[in-house]
Design brief:
By secondary structure, the protein is of the alpha+beta class. It has 13 helices and 10 strands. Mean pLDDT is 90; it is low at 1-8.
Length: 419
């Protein structure tokens, strides 16, 4: 029997689960000796689940060793609709890491291409109330998080877009290996979209308050009256627009990352500090839809305006070249031209605007801005409080939030989204 954890923080972490991870990782000869939970993330790094690490002592072939796993643990929310949503997201990530991505990477190996860059998952428990993923600790391979408050630069962004291109293309190849030729029929967890009345009501409450906050910020800026009118006018349909964006176009679509922003990509650097490799993490929002949904999400969540605007053509080329190179390996026809991709991006720009109003405040938040999710009991009261936080963030000196909003809304005006 292994020793008890030095820090008994989370009941989901057990001897049995850690031994299962060890066996999957190190082989059947690895025997658990002891383990210790060690938190390493800070407030604002994670929302949909708890992330910590487990330092494990084990024996193998008569010698003692140490390794570390990252543990993702399901949140036990007090609000039923939020609990349901977070559980759906956790199950989706477990299925993606345990079943879908291994199948995708099998396809990639068969065609002689590098696997999609995601962390290995050594143990997955999706039992309700006991949810946990025990995963590879990418810090051991020198991967680290990009500062979420910094706007992504071209070197980092290019790596992300190339990897998204590879993921999207590989999912098309996976489709062709399935009897249904549609991975959403094989893995139905990819298709949930707030189907209950409570979930729809909860998300509309969150959306309304967030858009109200954005409108209040823009009211204080001269000559942006039409932006305020547009925000106020879109409130009633915002949730429907987002749900529609998550659906495939004319039966087409790719497997999206779904939540691709600064926090959900890790980078490895060379000795000169140049990013040379990216790893996609936090896959709880994967689903099938237009690739433009992933692209808009990334572009309008993770950049300062000038970097996005000045490099957009280069970014789309990096994505498209990576996407097409995978498909051409198998002589699979590319489903859209560069010009059609540009049009898809334009068609989903309104989704990018909604993402920006939701996510940029999270990206730029300080520790005092981040809510205590586990203590939420009333979604309306919580959402009202988050609106107040949003406004306070915009009033800080040299507010990055205000600058990001201005650049984004200027783009939406130029593109004709806001008239």
């Amino acid at each position: 029997m292994a020793e008890e954890a030095v820090i008994p923080s989370y009941s989901q972490v057990t001897d049995e689960k850690i031994q299962a991870a060890l066996t999957a990782d190190k082989g059947p000869g690895a025997k658990l000796v002891s383990w210790q939970v060690k938190d390493f993330t800070k407030k604002g790094d994670n929302y949909a689940c708890i992330v910590t690490s487990v330092i494990v002592q084990y024996t193998l072939e008569g010698a003692q060793h140490e390794t570390t796993y990252v543990a993702k643990i399901g949140r036990d929310m007090q609000v039923a609709s939020l609990k349901t949503m977070f559980r759906q997201m956790f199950v989706r990530e477990g299925k993606c890491l345990g079943e879908i991505l291994p199948r995708i990477n099998e396809v990639m190996r068969k065609i002689g291409r590098r696997e999609i860059s995601v962390a290995k998952c050594f143990h997955c428990c999706l039992d309700e109330g006991k949810e946990i993923l025990l995963m590879e600790d990418l810090r051991a391979r020198s991967f680290r998080m990009f500062d979420r408050q910094r706007g992504m630069d071209a070197a980092h962004a290019t790596l992300v877009l190339q990897e998204l291109g590879r993921l999207h293309a590989a999912s098309i190849l996976l489709d062709k290996t399935l009897p249904s030729h549609d991975f959403t029929k094989t893995w139905t967890c990819l298709t949930d979209d707030w189907t209950t009345d409570d979930e729809n009501k909860m998300f509309k409450t969150m959306t309304d308050h967030q858009l109200d906050g954005a409108a209040m910020i823009m009211k204080k800026i001269p000559n942006y009256e039409r932006v305020v009118r547009w925000i106020e006018g879109i409130k009633e349909t915002a949730v429907d627009i987002m749900k529609q964006s998550f659906r495939s176009e004319d039966g087409e679509g790719v497997l999206l990352h779904g939540d691709c922003w600064n926090n959900n990509v890790l980078f490895r650097y060379d000795e000169a500090g140049v990013p040379v490799e990216v790893m996609l993490v936090d896959l709880q929002a994967m689903r099938k839809a237009s690739p433009a949904v992933d692209l808009n999400y990334f572009l309008y969540s993770s950049f300062n305006g000038p970097d996005r605007i000045q490099n957009k053509e280069m970014f789309l080329k990096a994505y498209y070249d990576s996407f097409t190179s995978v498909l051409k390996t198998e002589d699979v026809s590319v489903p859209f031209t560069p010009e059609e991709l540009q049009q898809k991006l334009q068609d989903h720009m309104i989704y990018g605007a909604l993402v920006s109003m939701f996510l940029v405040p999270m990206v730029l938040s300080e520790a005092e801005d981040v809510p205590d999710l586990d203590s939420i009991t009333d979604m309306d009261k919580f959402s009202e409080g988050q609106k107040d936080v949003l406004i306070k963030m915009s009033e800080r000196n040299d507010s990055l939030l205000k600058l990001r909003f201005l650049d984004m809304f200027d783009e939406m005006i130029e593109a004709g989204i806001i008239s």
